[in-house]
Amino acid sequence: MTAIKPFRIAISEDILADLKSRLARTRWPEAELVDDWSQGAPLKWIREICGYWANEYDWRAREAKLNCFDQFTTEIDGLDIHFLHVRSKEPSALPLIISHGWPGSIVEFQKVIAPLVDPAAHGGDPADAFHVVCPSLPGFGFSGKPKTTGWGVDRIAATWAGLMDRLGYARYGAQGGDWGSAVTTSLGGQDPEHCAGIHITLAFNAAPKVEGEPTPEEKRALAGLKHYVDLDSGYSKQQSTRPQTLGYGLTDSPSGQAAWILEKFWAWTDCDGHPENIFSKDELLDNVMLYWATETATSSARLYWESFGKRRTTPKVNVPTGVAVFPKEIITPVRRWMEPNFSKITHWSEMEKGGHFAAFEQPELFVRDVRKFFATVR
């Protein structure tokens, strides 16, 4: 039960043929009635990207690129966990577990793993090297799908602590964005004996606490919160209340799955109005494929059902904490709101550009900040 087994991504030809067939037979809705994204992902672009997906996208090439990283599975708490594990040649490398969220995946970290593992080969200091562990969240990608309820943020964090222990890492750092920020925060609270520090880009457990006139930092976050609640949170309400109902459509329709995910790469990135200003079609579809090919639309959405509206008793985080604030984050972190729950915020960076998918959007800024923070806790 504690075995660590090598893993390679190998999507069957049947799945790829079925995908092409479904894309060819898509029944499209009429176009939106506006000339922007205010009614959702535009028909013209979704048709274009699905046409590319069916006729030009080369999954086998992308699969080979992902398989360049050493991958494994291991069973923890009754569930198979898939993870990348890329060890550095530097003897002083710090183990680092990096966690994604929704609608992300391990694809987000393709561009940062090599610079983190081998800084000397990427213009950095060998002293900043990491052994990188990058798991797929339960119910996401190639990790197992929970067969019982109870797989919320804190249980995932406990599983990550077990994974690092199984890999022989008595001391490690943790980093995360989106749900990965929540898991990383919980990990820092649960396992301070082994977790040397955490680095996050989103502050889940930092509720607004405005006293008097809001500071500019607070005004920015409050504006982001209002926009999210008013215009951007419908997906979350659906996934946190009726994920099963949603899953029928997304699991059956690749165009539906693509639109559901790719809208967020418009809404949550620093893309100047269009996702392809910062991502190629291939990069966007690589991430969509990790939901489509594994049929994880429903199981990934259940993390919202498990998490929102549930009582949590995550311990206060007393390990050193670094925060990178990317300007186009959904709700930018506010230090004053975080301080009651994070006793040692030792690093705070206001980034010049970037949004929610930090490592995917701005890999150089992400790597620079991760190195800078963890240099203080090595």
UniProtKB/TrEMBL annotation:
Gene Ontology biological process terms in this record: epoxide metabolic process
Molecular functions (GO terms): epoxide hydrolase activity
Keywords: Aromatic hydrocarbons catabolism, Hydrolase
Membrane spanning stretches: none
Family matches, as InterPro entries: AB_hydrolase_fold, Epox_hydrolase-like, Epoxide_hydro_N, Epoxide_hydrolase
Active site annotation, chain numbering: D178 (nucleophile), Y304 (proton donor), H356 (proton acceptor)
Entries under Pfam families matching the protein: EHN
Coiled coil: none
Gene3D superfamilies: alpha/beta hydrolase
Protein name: Hydrolase
